Amino acid sequence: MRRRSWAWYVLAVAVMAGVTADVLVDGPLRRLDMTVHTFCDAHVQGGWMSVVHVFTQLGQRGVIAGFVLVPLAILGAIRARSLRPVLVPIVVVLLLSLLQEGLKSVIPRTYPAGGADVLWKHGDAYPSGHTLNGFLLIWVGIELLIVVLPVLDRWLTVRGRRDFALVTGILTGAALTAADEHWLTDVLFSLALGPVLLAGLVAAEPFTRPLWPGEPVRGRYPRI
């Protein structure tokens, strides 16, 4: 099992390195970016754009934080009589923001909305931070939901929560590409990195579990 996990990590690193190299040398994937941009710009309109836009919101940090994380964190803090359900999401969001800013600063790139794919001048399209949000912030939101409603832990296993976050991350990346808000390669990089970062949060779940206190369910939640 460990060998298989390491194989996935190596594959993810290879994909990120390969996509980045392709973008830098103007390879076939980057040329595909323009083809996908042209198709989506011409065909994803009207009702289709409205549907796609709904899924792009899964990666909008302001939307997820304002309508999901903040309310759940406040309710979780009240229920647990602790500030931990508030502090932990703040730390995760800050670290994720720093990571995104660092990655985007390496290869400045314009967004497809401008119609031109330009490197090294202006823009922070590469890689897609919104796609990473779709993986990680949704996971944090589910963890907070369990703080507020601990009974959900009977049905939402760690694996189930992970799989749900994987699906939302993939949907976010696909929607961002279809909505022409990101180049395909922006999203491909983050689709490789997102599951790795999510695996880190999942692996830390036994250690962060005391940070998500609530009513005892199967003896897992100590009261503090």
The structure class reads: mainly alpha
Query: Which value, in Å, is the CA radius of gyration?
Result: 19 Å
Number of strands: 0
The average pLDDT score comes to 90
How helix-rich are the residues, as a percent range? over 70%
Order of helices and strands: HHHHHHHHH
Structural domain tally:
1
**Strand-residue fraction?**
under 5%
> What separation lies between the terminal Cα atoms?
35 Å
| Number of DSSP helical runs | 9
Low-confidence stretches: 214-224
Key phrases:
single chain, mainly alpha, transmembrane, PAP2/HPO_sf, transmembrane helix, Phosphatase PAP2 family protein, membrane
Task: Note down, in words, how this protein is organized.
With 224 residues, the chain is an all-alpha fold. The protein has one domain (2-211). Helix content is 71%, strand content 0%. It has 9 helices and no strands. The chain has helices at residues 2-25, 28-43, 46-56, 61-80, 84-106, 129-148, 158-178, 184-203, 205-208. The longest helix is centred in the N-terminal third of the chain and has 24 residues, at 2-25. Residues 214-224 have low confidence and may be disordered.
Quick synopsis:
The chain is mainly α and 224 residues long.
